[in-house]
Amino acid sequence: MSGRPWWAANEGLAFLLELAALACLCWWGFTAGDGLAVHLLLGIGLPAVAIALWGTFAAPRARIRLPLAGVLAVKAVVLGGGALALYGVGHPVAAVVMAVVVVVNTALAETFRRRPAAEGQGGPA
Predict the structure, then answer these.
(1) What span, in angstroms and rounded, lies between the C-alpha atoms of 58 and 21?
(2) Structural domain range at position 76
(3) Would the N or C end of the chain have less CB density within 10 A of its end CB?
(4) Share of the chain above pLDDT 90, in %
């Protein structure tokens, strides 16, 4: 049962990264452009579009099941967009850290999903 806690911890981190990406998109949206209307449109609209993309194509219970490359592309757009938004609000080091953690987390998640469970170990089948 040694692989299961690592899988669960990585899935928990993935969820936190998704929330952080949405927060960063919202933060950048409310600071970008001029005027209240633009701030509201970007600050609310950009995270809403990210949520719609994620829920439709990348969530575990997505309505449309894409091949792995498509799911990874959606994750790159949403999570990478969050890192870019963090850079855009003036936090380049945090943006790089977020991007690296996203890449490692996603790679581990796919490794856990693809690895055959050996006698009760590992993530979901």
Answers:
(1) 14
(2) 3-114
(3) C
(4) 77
